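ok so heres the complex, two chains, lmk if somethin looks off
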Amino acid sequence: EAQVTQNPRYLITVTGKKLTVTCSQNMNHEYMSWYRQDPGLGLRQIYYSMNVEVTDKGDVPEGYKVSRKEKRNFPLILESPSPNQTSLYFCASSFWTGGTGELFFGEGSRLTVL
Amino acid sequence: TQLLEQSPQFLSIQEGENLTVYCNSSSVFSSLQWYRQEPGEGPVLLVTVVTGGEVKKLKRLTFQFGDARKDSSLHITAAQPGDTGLYLCAGTDSWGKLQFGAGTQVVVTP
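and the predicted structre for the whole thing:
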């Protein structure tokens, strides 16, 4: 089954404790992206990757890191989480067709930073 | 600042009624997508429109892309409880970047 898998789905952590949210897709998509979703603000892009070893900042990259060492994986790293990073996070992937094609989303990871 | 403005933010209707959701921008988009998101899940693509003036129908859902490719609408005929969800529009600009609107929460009660 074609899917994007995120882990963990739910996480409560404390300020400053490094965490990683993993994302894996099995559709051989070149393009992968991380979004955060907050009430009234919609989906805002954190980082994206056009292919292996190619990553770039989205609209709200502060406080986050990513890496793309393999085509299927695109982990999101919070080196020192703060309460303003409490949010619902989505990983998404697609074929790159000169513009973003259909985005396939994971089920989301709800993060609470105390 | 949202590049794409969706209205209304929230819509509650009875089963069988019709509804329209709007997505507006001052920018031109090369294409526009509509996604639906249900609680606890990620958004799922409903449709992509690419030509100004284009109309696409998906069962009871009708999508329209404005002639100037700056706006779009989603019309649902005879809404059903299964149509409940957060409807998101997303536009691709000339650089290939996708921008999302904040969404319209639709609740259809039996």
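quick notes: The CA atoms of residues 75 and 111 of chain A lie 15 Å apart. thats all i got rn
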